[in-house]
Fold this protein.
Amino acid sequence: MKAFYSSFLGVLFFVAMPSLGFGQLSVYNPSPGTVINQCQTYVLRYGPGEGFSSVASAEVHLGDWTGPTVQTLGYPAGYLSMNYDNNISAASLTPGNTYQIKVYDYYYPSNWAWSGIFTVTAFPAPTSISQMNNYYDWIEIKWPPVPGASSYGVDVATSTDFSTGIVWANHPASGTDPYGLYITGLTSGTTYYTRVRAYGSCGASGYSGIYSFSTLTCLPLSPPTANSATQVSPTQFTANWTTVPGASSYDLIVTGPGSSTSTYNTIGNTYSVTTLPQSNYTYKVKTRTCALSGESNTVSVASPGLSKPIMGSATGRNHSGGFWWDASWTSVNGAASYDFQVSSTSDFAFHWDATTSDTHYEFEAEFCATYYVRSRAKCCGSYYSDWATAKELPGASCRTSAPEGHSQDITSAQLGSDNFTISPNPAEHILRVTFPKPLKNSVEFVVTDLAGRNFNVASVLSETYAEVDVAELASGIYLISFTDGLFKQRSKFVKR
């Protein structure tokens, strides 16, 4: 009961209130004898012993509750009706000392209680590092977790002072993997040394002791015998070798231009090496198991040149008022494309060029004219075969071609007579076409190459002649066509 005096009424009142005396507040953790390290978080548990009490504040005292305060823990005011846990960091406490926590009522300091006396130690290093498994090139280790540790640093080397043969230097590890930590990239039959340190909120621990582990010893198998290459072309070959019992795979080492080396791993005893520059190569093979064998014998591969195509048949046809040849040739192994040439002379002094991935090419021709065609294979950027032996295509039937719906011959009164002249031929700047009689109708003309592409050229046209400026045309063979709307006449000329 609490008593209050009212000066207004002169009366002493007694009011019933909760008892807030000693023993009303209790501290359950830390319990007596608790030991924690500097990086740990410990639990402060407190609550009302009976009924209610105010929210507690707490003080951490050095030694016991009578010692100096080293840490103050404050909480908002209010009432407690149950136990509360608070996680407290020990990072500011000094290892080797004992402490006791005094918890008191915020509003009634006389109502207080204290925890058990507990001890703070230094952040401990990991202990009991043990090997779980080992193999030819890896080992697996583990260690008990260090309270308060958030991560670990692992050193691995072949020397006890960790100055030589370093594999890992402070390698980060979470330490949470229940299956341990794998150390990979090791050499078979080798002893390694390792040590571990822990990291937490208070910094790093000291190192653990030094522990030694060894990988299994692996004896390499014999190398295979490298055999001659097959399916050799300018851009690829297939390497072959004998099978070695027990091999898990093979390493194929290919040396090419400029002593450049490429290694291919495969489980079989053949391997196709593709997309090569045309050159000469060598290869050798190693057997792979837990260790790599020595090298096999060396095999040389001479990349063959491209064989030249053989010109085949050519098919002629009338089309759109003109005549077209479709020339063909044989396919060449390893060829990526083909160059094709057309000329009006067998020495190909003047020619028209095209490139195709097909083994035939169609071009527009002049009636009565004889053509020579040839092709060559191409691959590997700028590597060519020899030109094929040229094929002669004799002139088509000597007649002019009439437009659709017309079949009559051209008369001297119309465009055309078969004896008009073109000069000079070959032409370099101006091509002059002379008609035997004056033209009665207006005439249009067009210049095309043998692929049927039109070219715009300047010209002067009169009743008896036409002058065409061909200076801007590339060297080659062209067709010039004249029409008066009813009949068409073509002629071939060469541009130097």
User: Anything to note?
Assistant: The two ends are 128 Å apart (CA to CA). The first strand starts at residue 2 and ends at 6. The chain has a mean pLDDT of 81.
